[in-house]
């Protein structure tokens, strides 16, 4: 027979209140039930815990081991509470990686609401290119990612969230900013083009020819937009990337071949998310 947690708990109640009757009242059990549990514990230990014939006074053995028993029961209770809190999505830690355009547009409001509804869940956010996001998920450095399905590994699952239109971005004073409607690919040819790798999946020969003629390649979007503001040239970006930018930049969608990209949740296939991770993924899905 093994020692049960309720036996240790009843021992502590009797020891704390120096009374089997008080312990029975606090535990909502009968006094004989409390006495039997303590006697069974003593039998398992082969040592008396309380002096016989005295008012629930601890023996030297009982006093010696009272702190360890108290620590064990408290640890048991904390562990169970932590398990239940985690299972009920009340506590936990979540790490996610996102492409910057989605992070800047959608994450602030969503995380504000999530923090209010899940105050004990901590969240770490990092951003990077679509390939970087996928790699972080594959390497298990983050719990899930938000990105595109470009070059998606077979080990990853992709669940679409939204579509993002791609287009030409230039300074408001640039000649292309003055033309209405969609921007033709051919109209980019006379101007300095700054690429950042966003359109590497495009297969249309005419568009590929334009992209390959680019004079500058700047992957970092902050640096890229700074160069466009300075008038160095034009660039091609998803519309979400311009959220929150100043009015000095103009976005024009591209004519055929028009380009859109699907943005979605990325996570490892066949792996059940932890409760806290599932809670945040659900919040992202309901943006």
UniProtKB/TrEMBL annotation:
Gene Ontology MF annotations: DNA binding; DNA-binding transcription factor activity
LysR substrate-binding domain sequence ranges: 89-285
Superkingdom classification of source: Bacteria
Keyword annotations: DNA-binding, Transcription, Transcription regulation
One Pfam family in the UniProt entry: HTH_1
GO cellular component, one term: cytosol
SUPFAM superfamilies: Periplasmic binding protein-like II (SSF53850), Winged helix' DNA-binding domain (SSF46785)
Domain HTH lysR-type: 5-63
Similarity annotation: Belongs to the LysR transcriptional regulatory family.
Name under which the protein is recorded: LysR family transcriptional regulator
